[in-house]
Amino acid sequence: MKTLMKKALLSAAAISVSATLALAADYPDRPIGVAVSYGAGGATDFQARIVTMVAGNEDILGQPIYILNKPGAGGRKGWNWFATEAEADGYTMSAYNIPHFVAQSIKGGVKYSAASFEPIANWGADPAVVIVGKDSKFNTMQDLIDHAKANPGKTTTSGAGLFVGHHIAALQIEKACACKLAYIPTKGGGAAAMKAVIAGEVLAGVNNLSDAFRAREAGNVKILGVADLERNEFIKDVPTLKETGLDVDNSSVNFRGLMVKKGTPQAVIDKLAAQVPLMFAHARVTKRMKAGGSPMKIMTRDEVKAMWAARETTLKDLLAGL
Amino acid sequence: MEFLSYFGGVFEPIALMLLFAGTVGGLILGATPGLSPTMAVALLIPFTFHLSPTQGLILLGAAYTSTVAGGAVSAILLKIPGAPANIATALDGNEMAKRGEGARALHLSFLASGVGGVIGVLLLIFLTPLLAQWALKFGPSHLFWIAILGVTVIGSLDSKSFVKGLLSGCIGLWLSTIGTDDIMGADRFIFVDALSGGITIIPALIGLFAIPQVLDMFAKGRVSAVIDTIDVPRYKVFDSVKELTCSLRALSIGTVIGSIIGLIPGVGGQIAGLVAYDQARNFSPQKDKFGTGHPEGVIAAESANNAMVGPSLVPLLTLSIPGSPTAAVLLGGLLIHGIFPGSDIFDKHPEVVWTFINSMLLGQILMVIFGIYTAAWAARIAKAPIPILAAGVLVLALFGSYSVGQSMGDVQIMLALGIGMYILEKFGFSAAPLVLGLILGPIAGDYFNNGSMIAAAQDGPWVYFFTGPLNIILIAMVVASIAYSFWTNMLRASFTKVPNSEAAK
User: Fold this and answer.
1) How far is B441 from chain A (nearest CA, A)?
2) Interface probe with A: pick from B49, B446, B450, most Cβ of A within 10 Å
3) Which of the residues A19, A300, B215, B504 has an alpha carbon 20 to 30 A from that of A243?
4) How far is residue A199's CA from residue B317's CA, in Å, rounded to a whole number?
5) A262 and A210: one domain?
6) Which chain B residues contact residue A49 at CB under 8 A?
7) For residue A185, what are the domain limits?
8) Pair (A161, A213) in one structural domain
9) Do A182 and B457 touch (CB under 8 A)?
10) pLDDT tens for each residue of A93-121
11) In this structure, are A303 and A165 located in the same domain?
């Protein structure tokens, strides 16, 4: 009897060991979900659907990826869910938005921080830009800053919400010019913030480069500056904020990528970290992303790790006074 | 008349097939509880990757129009509004279905949707440049007043008692404050995780409308030993057409209100049906029939929510600003093919835009045909024995609220609200004003906050909210609406002296 028990235990142990190994080796053997913390049709959702569309190819993951929308509270609801309820088995990933989730975790009141997640790879980088309406009297950043200095707290500037890239950019501009804007987090996100600028409800706005680029093509806005380290290929004629004399770096750039929950088996993370960048770089993906005016920036797991750490430091510093 | 020359594109074999597929698929998706038009269109986007831009947009355009109409099916037959747009449809439509007139209600709803929808798309075709400027005029202060205007109808909406209507509206307004406030960044009334994103509107709709009904059905099943079913007579389509032409007032009120409200970005579709319903009742000589299964209620609500489809795309196509969540998904569908909407889109990509618009026009007509064709069968649901129907609705309610965000939290919210509403209904409160409060609360609150922040940087809130012609007009409408409902209630109270009959029920 005892030996039987022992045998049974041993074989059970053997099965469980081989199951873990098999899990990693066979991964993925069923479709993988990607939780997007924003609604269907938003930029993150839209891009996530494009960059994951070739996941089913045999040379990528061999299994399709589907999107789970978990919108609410500026992304907090989705990431809270991911950090607390999702399984750490690699079959549920999440899209991240930097600086949003890092800034939120610094402000507190959420159940996650950068340490709750393991980055896989980055697919996109959408810098924030400063825009004004097409008939605005402001033609350069200098005009705008002069106005802000002359009228502290009167330069209404729309953006998509609190503690998102747009807000961070506005805070950095205020810090750099030692002047005071009036940042207006607009109900309805980036699209509504853009409308506020076009309709003249606000004097200026901070918005996504991709949306501002389209609005400029349509003749509705002027773009005064890019909050990034170098000029962007979509709008080569627009200077960076640094060039205009404002000490603003790329902390507000909206990075998007995929991550898994902390505790996911290392073998799974390694496999994803190797394959996912290939998926992002697939010709069909890049073609669609370019057509949609969505700037891509593919970064590997190690690069993303470094970027997350750097953001955390800058944001802690920037948000300390708020 | 430029659009006529592009009609050929819709009649190519593949395009026509997609149009059929989009319409039928859209009707089915729209009729599925929990799948809003936004979600349905988002689900279809990946399919358009493999199509040409024109073909992809034909699919999306047809699906958009028919999902909005499809929502009426579950609203009428099961009292589960598929989307906020169909709330008002459920009020009278479901009463009709309970009498066995489901087929008639469905006929009228599809015909009214078709008429409203076609007129809405025609507005999009002919008046786009004009309408675009109009859509831009609404800033935070105006949207705030529009939301307040919506709040003023709460008292009179689907309630025998004005005071109970107001109270239930207030409960809705309070429920709407739950969650993280996006503008101030403050947490409000979040005691459990499921509430951190606030009360999601679709699970709330399902809970508030379907669950009390299910509980009622179960209660009824226990009292009577015999399972009773109702007769479902067949209705001739011709009769429905005739009835529609006799209800021109409701039809035109619905269409006009739907088109105007649909145009306003950020408010649009959610309240078009309810406002049209309320106005149709105000102007009707048979006011008291509304809410008891009056066909005009269905006609007004459905013509309004489909009339909104066309105009809601104006800001998207001309200014590249999506005015509704569905428009945002369609923007994605355009971008993916490298088409940037803007004032020059009609010159740069005429074949794509016009084919898209034409497909919506044809989609409306196809939707009417398919809808009416299937109505007679769908209406037979009412024949099902009550316990089975109740179980079926419960399953759909659970499935629908889970599928919105794959979250058990939403299911819990749905059930909690449903049970709460069941108790409230026993005391004579009704769900429609509560839902209106739930929808309008965040609109009013956030635009007020938004407006105050802008006002603080300009000349102060008084100037910002109370001056300017558009503000004044809207304020006048608010005052008139309040005065009107007080006046009619005083009148009713003093002449009829109806005791509070609802409470005794």
Assistant:
1) 13
2) B450
3) A300
4) 16
5) no
6) 45-46
7) 128-226
8) yes
9) yes
10) 999 999 999 999 998 888 899 999 999 99
11) no
